[in-house]
Amino acid sequence: MPLDAWFHQATDWPDAVLPAYDGGSIANLPVSILRAFGVPVCVNPLVSPLDESILPRELLDNARVVVLVVVDGLSSAALERDAFCAGVIPPVIKRTITSVFPTTTAAALTSLQYGTSPGSHGMAGYTVFLPALGRVINLVRFKPVDGSSIDSKRLDPRAMVATPSIFDRLRDVGVGSVVVSHQEYERSPLTLAQSGDTEYLGHRTLAEMAARLSSAVRRPGRRFVFGYWAGIDMLSHTWGPASDAARLDFRLFQRALVDGVLIPLRDRGEDAVVIVTADHGHTTVDPERQISLADLARVVGGWAGPPTGERRAVGLTVPTGSRAMLASAVSGRGAVVPVADAMLHGLFGPPPHHPELISRIGDLLLLARANASFPYRVHGENKPPALGAHGSLTADEMLVPMLVWRFGR
């Protein structure tokens, strides 16, 4: 049964947006870039390139430099609300594509740097259970969520994904790569897991990011430049994705990209392609529509395994016979589906799947609908709740923009 038919039958959630791994998702984008540089792409576990109707092959082919800028947390809805580069230097292509599932940075940003789905690379959540360690690990910080410590030799970020990254595959055909991201992430575990020893240019501000991107393009030879901006995601979590703060950061990002990257590339006649996309979107959450996992545990009689994931996409293992009680407790706010069924029908992507996928997540998925959430616990009065979140399957989380500029031809 196709993914959409199974999901809508299993959840009665008709407006859920499902990942389009067959040529319409962010996981397909790096494979299109690999193909443009002459890298063989008919290799498992790579997914297919983006469909020609979304990104025509000839737009990338033979470009000397391809620049991919990922704006963390930027939904298509946010881009439409604050029209990107209107009347300044419009893109040649403006499309909407899907994120992957789960719609979270550890999963989606890994897919954007490997060309594989979360089901294959195994970084399938903000937190996952690693059987070899017996702990739930935060995949952004690579630390146990219970606050305990683990010998770094037992948790090697470089060994988290067993297949070559896009940077590795390009290196094999003589194409250099540069990562341009915030300087504090340079040796972070997540960076090491996703880009390894790829050259890293750290920035502190949007202006410096633009300057770093532009300088990387000016280097001689064929090159892939990967840029990342985290500001919109951070502000959306705190203030909400429609907040003045998040919207202002997006406008500042646009100004930095246009003035610091796009206009200089056009004026110099650089042979370059610039692509802007996002790892996932954001949705506003309602503190009045949250149910803590602690409260749900009391309903089902405790957890049979540690919860994983995050507040809008939770992995759970419940006592035998408790699934119906869980579904009833979250009725109207969440959908409950078996992880094995989600794997079988392709929610995590096509096979081959990571051998530990179910162990890393749990037996069930609890997916937040609309503006609900399922945090570990409800924040006290001294710590206000986050107003933005992601991880689930609403349009605001799943649908992200893809903008493309081509210069020098």
Structure, explained:
The strands form four sheets. Strands 2-16-9-1-8-6-7 form a seven-stranded mixed sheet, sandwiched between helices. A four-stranded antiparallel sheet has the order 11-12-14-13. It has a three-stranded antiparallel sheet with strand order 3-4-5. It is built from 16 helices and 16 strands. The relative contact order is 0.20. The radius of gyration is 21 Å and the shape is globular. It is 33% helix and 20% strand. Helix 5 (105-114) runs parallel beside helix 8 (189-195) and helix 10 runs antiparallel to helix 11. The N and C termini lie far apart (45 Å). The protein has helices at 3-11, 29-36, 57-60, 76-81, 105-114, 118-121, 166-172, 189-195, 206-218, 231-239, 244-268, 293-300, 323-329, 339-345, 357-361, 395-398; strands at residues 65-71, 93-98, 127-130, 135-138, 143-144, 176-182, 199-203, 223-229, 272-277, 283-284, 305-310, 313-317, 334-338, 364-368, 388-389, 399-407. It has a domain at 21-123 and 147-283 and 394-407: Alkaline Phosphatase, subunit A. The mean pLDDT is 95. The protein is of the alpha/beta class and 409 residues long.
Radius of gyration using CA atoms only? 21 Å
Overall structural class, as computed from helix and strand content, comes to alpha/beta
Could you give the distance between the termini?
A: 45 Å
**Name of the CATH first level of the domain at 21-123 and 147-283 and 394-407:** Alpha Beta
Strand content: 15-25%
The global form is globular
Q: Give the name of the CATH architecture of the domain at 21-123 and 147-283 and 394-407.
A: 3-Layer(aba) Sandwich
The major sheet is characterized as: 7 strands, mixed
Calculate the mean pLDDT score and round it: 95
Please, what is the CATH homologous superfamily of the domain at 21-123 and 147-283 and 394-407? Answer: Alkaline Phosphatase, subunit A
CATH topology of the domain at 21-123 and 147-283 and 394-407: Alkaline Phosphatase, subunit A
